[in-house]
Amino acid sequence: MKDLQFNRHRRLRQSETMRALVRETHLRKEDLIYPLFVVEGENIKNVVPSMPGVYHISLDNLQAEMDEVVSLGIKSIILFGVPAEKDELGKQAYHDHGIVQEATRFVKERYPDLVIIADTCLCQYTSHGHCGIVKDGKVLNDETLDLLAKTAVSQAEAGADIIAPSNMMDGFVAAIRHGLDEAGYHDVPIMSYAVKYSSSFYGPFRDAAHSTPQFGDRRTYQMDPANRMEALREAQSDMEEGADFLIVKPALSYLDIMREVKDRFNAPVVAYNVSGEYSMVKAAAQNGWVNEQEIVMEKLTSMKRAGADLIITYFAKDVANWLS
Ligand code: PBG
């Protein structure tokens, strides 16, 4: 044993203070973006069954929720709307008094410093549940772009600080940028769902948003989980079209993609820790099979280590609490 040569990695692990000194990745409250589902109607605060701890909230109940979010030190929210009525063209998405527009006004008035991100898509608003205009069983690309630009402009008008288009039509960043600029919103950034896979991890969200496609699936517009080069092409065209942030979604099964996007593009990268990733932890934790806090902190830290600058997560309130 005497002449044995090897590296002593354990030297830097011997105490919590030593480990803290050499820790490479840090999760901060400022990294968190909290998703909220706002619904039309009164006095509603209903738990989403497949997402314990996540609620459908009507505007009259939003104040209490926002007070909590802000007092925890969360700096940003992303709003998803669940409208009372749906139609073929998703008109409530771009209605001046649509649920996201109204919720944005409500929050902006009370918390002017909070960053409000508006999700820009049609699937919660269309009767068929697809993210674009449907004709003869096909989701039309270019015809949908006008509606997306219209939605984004109405959200900016209501006070949204960032527009986050999640629909995966080609050219959506260019169309929305053009629409926003024409309406005078040059300063409103676009957080593009640039790399969005067609994923089974969205299942609980579709329960929450009532946005399950009524026929077929989203594979003609969302990406094949098997593909890597395709993700880089998507990110590249969104950058060229003027995206200010790039989202990679889902997060956990796509950490390799997140790292590549971070290394190749000079824009903030956002991990979307999606609904299925949330529900699986919740279910296991409720059964006592995992330690929820430790699992969640490990997962979110791994997203940051993979290159995420920001994380959209349903765990945001819990994490903010744990970080306090
Ligand atoms: C809408 C949209 C979806 C999610 C965010 N925006 C669902 C989908 O594409 O079906 C999923 C979010 C989650 O699972 O948490 N286009």
From the spread of the alpha carbons, the general shape counts as globular
Tell me the radius of gyration: 20 Å
Beta-strand portion reads: 15-25%
Secondary structure: number of strands: 12
CATH architecture label name: Alpha-Beta Barrel
Walk me through this protein's architecture.
The protein has 324 residues and is an alpha/beta fold. The protein has one domain (26-323): Aldolase class I (TIM Barrel, Alpha-Beta Barrel), CATH 3.20.20. Helices cover 37% and strands 19% of the residues. It contains 11 helices and 12 strands. The strands form 2 sheets. Strands 1, 2, 3, 4, 5, 8, 9, 10, 11 and 12 form a 10-stranded mixed beta sheet that branches. Strands 6-7 form a two-stranded antiparallel sheet. Strand 4, helix 3 and strand 5 form a beta-alpha-beta unit. Helix 3 runs parallel beside helix 4. The N and C termini lie far apart (47 Å). The chain binds ligand PBG.
Give a brief outline of the structure.
The chain has helices spanning 16-21, 62-71, 99-110, 142-158, 172-182, 203-209, 229-241, 255-264, 275-286, 292-305, 316-323, and strands spanning 32-39, 45-48, 51-58, 76-82, 115-120, 133-135, 138-140, 162-165, 191-196, 245-249, 269-273, 310-313.
What are its keywords?
324 residues; 11 helices; binds ligand PBG; globular; ten-stranded mixed beta sheet; alpha/beta; TIM Barrel; 37% helix; two-stranded antiparallel sheet; 12 strands
